[in-house]
Every structure is written in C-alpha cells, then in structure tokens.
Amino acid sequence: MVKVNGEPLDIAGKTIAEYLATTNYDMKRIATELNGDIIPKATYADTVLKDGDSIEIVSFVGGG
Fold it and tell me: Of 6, 31, 45, 49, which residue is most buried, by most CB within 10 angstroms?
C-alpha cells in the first residue's frame, strides 16, 4: 500500500506517472513529494512506488 495524501491505495509497483494518469490532476499545476522529498516532474515516469511509500500531491491554483 502507498499513502497518497494520507489515503492508502494499492498502487505499489506503478510509477508516479502511471498513477497520475489515472487522476484528474493538471500536470502543469502540481508538485509531488515522495517520502519527504520533492520529485522532479522529469522523473515521474522513472520513479516506481514501493509498498510503504508516502506521496503528497499539491495542486497550485491562481487567484488574488
């Protein structure tokens, strides 16, 4: 199990890119943290999630 924003999901073995492809996140407006480290978008397709990992995904919104 991998925790995504605090919710356990059965996505171990998938890459970050594979997981994000199943969501509605706007890829241009997110930052992803894996186990406390910011993950560069260029490495999403190469970063494989492991059992026990924790991901935080933050969406940026414009406004004033």
Answer: 49
